[in-house]
């Protein structure tokens, strides 16, 4: 199966913003009881153009449970980088990525976790930092012409610590080491959603880099068991997600996963349901997402066997 969006496609199914959506969703009769262990496997690949304007929100697969606004678990493809996120209420975490240095991505995220999301100067500072990194990556000649040598040194030079401290102070950021690491996090859309603490433990494997799905098939296996220790209804324990890509274990994630379930919410405790396809802010580039060999089961041995990715 393939989901595609093309130049001129648009819609209003994204709240107040213009968007492009083309998605498949699992039928409701296949949704598990919320909190049950569920396994998923599938192959996918991405075909098309990456937006030249830098990081745009692009979700290419998502699991949503009762009460979720943002998906508890999502595959994303911002700025041409495949990565996976897990949600703790309103706070998001990258748990695995195809970035050049996934360890630096997680290190930058750890610094963001220590910032205060209610501090608007810090939030705006992180957003400004991403804009600067995007300019350096996408328009290097323009950046060299209009950014001061001191600013370029702060962002790019190993010996630019004095400049980094001054820039961090200007941006309202308390830890200047974020500036030296942020280039490995700048592909992430909406970096403000990663600010502040989250009760999520990320246990990465030694070879934890995700494969690049651009133009080639990638095999994914997920073990998903939702849960939160602060739930009033539903599973009142830590949730757990385990992810494999092309036969290699990538990461185990434990903690408060998804939205807190309150007694007064009267939500139906089913799911999560899985959606695959394209959900992005509107851009002009054509994009297609291909899905094959999808399988869902309560145990791994009951999944259909995947053909090896080539």
**Helix segment count?**
6
Biggest pleated sheet = 7 strands, antiparallel
- Shape label: globular
The strand order across the widest sheet is: 1-13-3-9-10-11-8
Computed CA radius of gyration, to the nearest angstrom: 20 Å
Query: What is the residue-mean pLDDT, rounded to a whole number?
Result: 90
Distance between the termini: 18 Å
Summing up helix and strand content along with how strands pair, one would put the structural category as: alpha+beta
What is the number of E strands?
Answer: 13
Multimeric status of the protein: single chain
Question: How would you characterize this protein structure?
Answer:
The chain is of the alpha+beta class and 310 residues long. 20% of the residues lie in helices and 32% in strands. Strands 1-13-3-9-10-11-8 form a seven-stranded antiparallel beta sheet, with no helix packed on it. A six-stranded antiparallel beta sheet has the order 2-12-4-5-6-7. Helix 2 (120-138) packs across helix 3 (140-146) and helix 4 packs across helix 5 (161-171). The two termini are 18 Å apart. The model has no long low-confidence stretch (mean pLDDT 90).
Map the helices and strands:
Layout: E1 2-5, E2 19-25, E3 38-48, E4 58-64, E5 73-78, E6 81-88, E7 91-97, H1 102-113, H2 120-138, H3 140-146, H4 149-156, H5 161-171, H6 177-181, E8 200-204, E9 218-225, E10 239-245, E11 248-255, E12 273-281, E13 287-297
Antiparallel strand pairs: 1-13, 2-12, 3-9, 3-13, 4-5, 4-12, 5-6, 6-7, 8-11, 9-10, 10-11
Helix pairs in contact: 2-3, 4-5
């Amino acid at each position: 199966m393939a989901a595609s969006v093309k130049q001129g496609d648009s819609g209003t199914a994204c709240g107040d913003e213009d968007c492009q959506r083309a998605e498949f969703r699992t039928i409701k009769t296949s949704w598990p009881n919320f909190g049950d262990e569920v396994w998923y496997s599938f192959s996918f690949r991405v075909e098309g153009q990456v937006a030249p304007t830098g990081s745009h929100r692009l979700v290419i697969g998502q699991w949503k449970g009762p009460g979720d606004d943002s998906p508890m678990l999502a595959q994303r493809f911002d700025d041409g980088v495949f990565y996976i996120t897990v949600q703790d209420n309103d706070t998001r975490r990258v748990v695995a990525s195809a970035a050049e240095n996934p360890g630096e991505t997680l290190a930058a995220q750890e610094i963001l976790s220590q910032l205060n999301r209610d501090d608007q100067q810090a939030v705006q500072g992180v957003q400004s930092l991403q804009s600067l990194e995007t300019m350096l990556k996408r328009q290097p000649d323009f950046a060299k012409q209009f950014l001061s040598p001191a600013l370029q040194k702060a962002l790019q030079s190993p010996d630019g610590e004095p400049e980094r401290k001054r820039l961090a102070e200007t941006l309202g950021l308390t830890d200047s080491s974020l500036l030296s690491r942020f280039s490995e996090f700048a592909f992430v859309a909406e970096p403000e959603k990663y600010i502040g603490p989250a009760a999520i433990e990320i246990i990465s494997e030694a070879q934890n880099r995700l494969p690049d799905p651009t133009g080639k098939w990638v095999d994914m296996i997920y073990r998903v068991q939702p849960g939160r220790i602060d739930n009033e209804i539903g599973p009142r324990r830590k949730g757990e997600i385990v992810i494999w890509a092309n036969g290699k274990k990538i990461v185990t994630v434990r903690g408060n996963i998804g939205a807190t379930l309150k007694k007064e919410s009267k939500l139906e405790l089913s799911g999560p349901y899985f959606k695959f396809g394209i959900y992005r802010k509107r851009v002009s580039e054509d994009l297609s997402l291909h899905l094959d060999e999808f399988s869902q089961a309560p145990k791994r041995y009951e999944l259909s066997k995947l053909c090896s990715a080539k």
